[in-house]
From TrEMBL:
Lineage: Bacteria, Bacillati, Bacillota, Bacilli, Bacillales
EC number in record: 2.7.1.26, 2.7.7.2
GO BP term (any one): FAD biosynthetic process
The name this protein goes by in its record: Riboflavin biosynthesis protein
Species in which this protein is naturally found: Ureibacillus massiliensis 4400831 = CIP 108448 = CCUG 49529
Keywords: ATP-binding, FAD, Flavoprotein, FMN, Kinase, Multifunctional enzyme, Nucleotide-binding, Nucleotidyltransferase, Transferase
Length: 315
């Protein structure tokens, strides 16, 4: 898969215009089932038109530029993870457009000229609610009315689940309360967080439950505090595990607000410090709580472990 980074007004001439594209347009945070319907249409059209399939996404999130957000933005799928998923889906090319103040000021007409016509796009697919150009003045009706027959347009209606739209906002709300099975259903796959195994306080091994301490990738959305049944990808192999997300209240000063992600990997005893891993989240087992001593903590962790084993046996 080819990944092309574009910045207006620079870098636009670096694209090979001898290639024609069927393009899916959107931010696509999460690449959820609704997004997948848009991207599948673009891939299908690319085959019909003998063109390359492409996705155009934007970085960073427009709200950072338009809304002046000072707080950190957390993504369901940070950019590299999004690109990896698009590759798995079978997209030929991903255009990553840098979302800047200059880009945000483009008129709908200029957006179409620079990012549709000049890229030799022969078909555009987007969701019914996609907007573009300064202040979101352009919509998919605009896209069609300004085409002059230069490109085709497909508009994908909202995908619903129990009469409610499948959306990134809905997924975020489910992540905030740890509803991982709901998130799985909306994404069409388990929620995953890439990260790196780093040194922790090594307390887990002293009580018989060694854990991998995970530093999540920058900008990753971490589910609600609690204990989860997870799978972890280590050295290209998935392993079942139990993950604690939280502040370790049994051991830590309540003023210490450093969130930790620790995975006890079942039937595993390798040293994996420094390894890049992916945590796949399947089910929230319980909330995090403070125990009155090591023995009660160990007993609860064993219960959590057995519940995770049962869950994966029945999956």
């Amino acid at each position: 898969m080819n990944v092309i980074h574009l910045k207006y007004p620079h870098q636009l001439k670096e694209v090979d215009t001898s290639t024609s594209y069927s393009l899916a347009l959107g931010f696509f945070d999460g690449v959820h089932r609704g997004h997948q319907a848009v991207i599948k249409n673009a891939i299908d059209k690319s085959k019909e038109l003998n063109a390359k399939s492409a996705v155009m996404t934007f970085d960073p999130h427009p709200s950072i530029v338009l809304g002046g957000r000072k707080e950190k933005v957390f993504y369901i799928t940070p950019l590299q993870q999004k690109i990896n998923i698009l590759k798995e889906i079978g997209v030929d090319t991903v255009f990553v457009v840098q979302f800047t103040s200059d880009f945000a000021k483009l008129s709908p007409e200029d957006f179409i000229n620079y990012f549709i016509r000049d890229l030799n796009v022969v078909h555009v697919t987007a969701g019914f609610d996609f907007t573009f150009g300064s202040f979101g003045k352009g919509n998919m009706e605009t896209m069609e009315s300004l085409s002059n027959g230069d490109y085709g347009v497909s508009v994908i209606n909202k995908l619903t689940d129990d009469a409610e739209k499948i959306s990134s906002t809905r997924i975020r709300k489910s992540l905030q309360i740890g509803e991982m099975e709901e998130v799985h259903k909306l994404l069409g796959r388990p929620f995953e967080v890439p990260g790196l195994v780093i040194h922790g306080d090594k307390r887990g091994r002293t009580i018989g439950f060694p854990t991998a301490n995970i530093q999540s990738a920058e900008g990753s959305f971490i589910p609600a505090v609690g204990v989860y049944a997870v799978r972890i990808l280590v050295q290209n192999r998935w392993h079942d595990g139990v993950c604690n997300v939280g502040y370790k209240p049994t051991f830590k000063n309540p003023e210490d607000k450093q969130l930790s992600i620790e995975v006890h990997i079942l039937d595993f005893d390798k040293n994996i410090y420094g390894e890049e891993v992916v945590v796949g989240w399947y089910k929230r087992i319980r909330n995090e709580k403070k125990f009155d001593g090591i023995d009660s903590l160990k007993a609860q962790i064993e219960k959590d472990k057995q519940e995770a084993i049962r869950y994966f046996q029945n999956l």
